[in-house]
From TrEMBL:
Residues 1-29 are annotated as: Disordered. This is Magnesium-transporting ATPase, P-type 1. Residues 13-23 have a biased composition (Low complexity). It is an enzyme of class 7 (translocase). The chain crosses the membrane at residues 91-109, 289-312, 324-344, 772-795, 807-828, 840-858, 878-896. Its main location: membrane. Keywords: ATP-binding, Cell inner membrane, Cell membrane, Magnesium, Membrane, Nucleotide-binding, Phosphoprotein, Translocase, Transmembrane, Transmembrane helix. It is found in: Cell inner membrane. The gene is mgtA. It is a multi-pass membrane protein. Mediates magnesium influx to the cytosol. It comes from Actinomadura miaoliensis.
Amino acid sequence: MWAPDPPLDKRSPAAPAPGAAARGRPDGGSLASVRAALAGYAGEPALAVLRRWDTSPRGLDENEAQDRLLRFGEGADGSARDGGTRRPVRAAAAPFVVVLICLGLVSALVGDARGTVLICCLAVLSGALRFRQEARSDRAAAALRTMATTTATVLRRAAPGADPVPREVPAEQVVPGDIVLLGPGDVVPADLRLLSSSGLTVDQSALTGESLPAGKHATWAEGPLPAPPAGGPEPDVFGHPRLCLTGTTVVAGTGTAVAVATGTATYVGATGDLPARPPETAFDRGVRAVSWGLVAAMLTALPLVLAAGGALRGDWSRALPTAVAVAVAVTPEMLPLVATALLVRGAAGLSRRQVIVKRLPAVHNLGAMDTLCVDKTGTLTERHLRPACHLDPDGGADPGVLRWARLNALWSVELSGSPDGDAVDEALLRDAGDLAGFEGADVIPFDFTRRRATVLLRPDDPRPRSRAAHVLVTKGAVEDVLDVCVRVRTRDGEVALDAAERARLLAMGDRWAADGVRLLAVATARRAAPARSLSPADERDLTLVGFVGFRDRPDPAAAAAVRALARRGVDLIMITGDHPEVARRVCRDAGLPVSRVVLGRDLAGLDDAELARLAGPATVFARVAPAQKARVVRALRRAGRTVGYLGDGVNDAPALRAADVGVTVAGAAGPARAAADVILARGGLGALEQAVVAGRRTFANTVKYIKIALTSNVGNVASILAAAATLPFPAMPPLQVLVRNVCFDLSQLALVHDRVDESQILRPRTFDHLDLARFVACVGPVGALFDLAVFGLLWRVPAAHGPGGQQLVHTGWFVANLTAQGLAMLLLRSRGRGAPRAAWPVLAAAAAPALCGLLLPFSPLAATLDLRPLPLAALPPLAVVVTGYLAATIGVRALYQRLFGRWL
Ligand SMILES: Nc1ncnc2c1ncn2[C@@H]1O[C@H](COP(=O)(O)OP(=O)(O)OP(=O)(O)O)[C@@H](O)[C@H]1O
């Protein structure tokens, strides 16, 4: 059917494509030109497209593929590009680096040269630390990703003259001109022009938001093709049946296609929206909102303080440093750094427990997850199907049916070339014995929408006459096989499949299902030797010959894990493609309550709101297609839930991608591993419960840090303002405020090691702005009062009125503030009695700021920071104030808990 290979001209670059943008150039092209190029490929005959790319249906040879990889660069995964060029820009554009740069400018304007230099150093340090931290976490994530890379199957030849073989390669190594083989669950690795297909359906929702999957086909014989665009409206590249675009997912069917664009030259590459970029989590949004909120506060405070001090009191020389000090005080410079460090530690802790986190923010999402959708096999059951029965249509044992089913399994696996073993076929082929007598001629592979697999068998018989008598064998879900049958082979001979017979057979399937046995129907038909390849339309006029049944043992650990997750406030919902009664039975065995079973066919009439209302904790979705699984997940997310999805099959890939956090297991099918954010290398639901706890612990420590840092900063702002209004000299030099912040924040990094109160990990939590504002508003003023007490006390020290008196007051505040805030961290970090003790790094970190405060006035930096050693007489009153502050903090903590019923 194909023309012979066109000669491969190694000297010429890739032949001209219909539009420059689609040539796979690493620098990509404009969206309009990419669209036009794709429309051009769709409109051209297949052979012309192949010629353009100097390729053939037999694929590229390995050398040529390597050349093209060098020429066009890696595709699919945008992370490498992002890391190389955008990371430094991102690090420099972080809100707090911007703030520091602004502060440096203001300091320079005030004429504070030392301050300007230090602030600039800090800006560089903060940016560099963030850059390093991001580089480290990106490397860690990349290392984890390699354990679960997205792969694609391409046809490649070892040498130009060799036979093509299907080869699995990392998706980013697909090059223009590669012949890509598509199967259920595959993520499309490049922009593809289809050459042939069989029942191919693609989920494009990740790019278009369209929840219904789109049918794709290459030729008129398979379905109507749109007329070529006539220069009018922009071509609809998603809607075109011949195009499969990068980042979409194959839901059903198979296809062969040629890659016409990779990487930034693809459609999503041109939109700058490569699907590798994960969506922002609720936590990211929270931290970003806080960061920019503080930047806004700083930018507001600066002119206000200036106006108040300068215009009202006419003292501009004091107003400026005060304004700068306020701006510095309000800024938690290390927030992004500590937040990332906490995530990295969370992910590292999980990897020690054999939980691999591919995307750092998934750690928080694990903790925030309040709804977990699970499939059935391999999650609540062991994923080890055992044959339970083989029956004729009357219900009697029949080994002949088992043999047909095994022949179907054998040739489905052999001919479809799918790398992911199917549990049903695996079970059938275990101890299958001799299956001689037939040879596979063609296949329509199993897909989760038809729920059938069909093979065409050729008798392994040398006599020429019998060569014509092929047998079509179909196996699949009972109702879906009955849909294509017209007769039933009973003990009394063949009878027509009428409504009564169909009801009897379905009832038989239900009875076995209620007992936990998944029944598959087997049907056959005699066919003449085919003149063309099989298509789903050939699945008709079959005769039902019986059933094969399988049992899947419940996972013994599942029931305990279900209970543990329920205790932790996670609602479980089962979404399966299996029979409703089998699903109900498995739920019962796992202790999962079932109040209603919703069938896939009933979902079509529901809008998202109705669907989300229906998807309560005791709901089971059965007989759902892969795209419907993803739809349920999306509807739940739209209803405000944080949704996890745990599944291991190729059909779970769209739902894994749609969830806030997609979780799979080590033995899962490749596409599921590629789509998931988290891989449980050992254990199933039980390991997930542990991961949820770890996620919540990380979240709790991050929130703890944010609360403590903001409380301390807001307290300092209040005290600077109050002191400015009452003291006859500037309250605190901006430089000292900055150094104080950095010392304190660095010590807070120890919180990554802190123990967490059980009450904080009992329920799912998300970022709560109101709670944060309330906490800061109630606890911050305690610090401000303490600072004022320090100023008052030091003002009474006679030395303060002599030369260097201001320096003494400033040093006293600096030392006392660092000591008090360091120790107060031990009080703020827990709700008090009954809470777990601080881990030793936290204890050490609590003492560190005090030590810094005491030692810096004796260090060579003292002059730069305007600090001087305190007289001994100043220490006892400071100790009294610090003790008083700690006592006040304990009091406020108790009162706060009584009033609001919570602490952190
Ligand atoms: N290899 C196969 N050949 C034919 N039919 C199959 C095959 N595998 C599964 N089926 C049919 O398709 C139906 C749906 O498949 P399956 O139960 O695996 O869906 P699922 O959503 O992956 O289920 P689970 O929730 O258990 O993971 C099955 O009930 C069975 O009837």
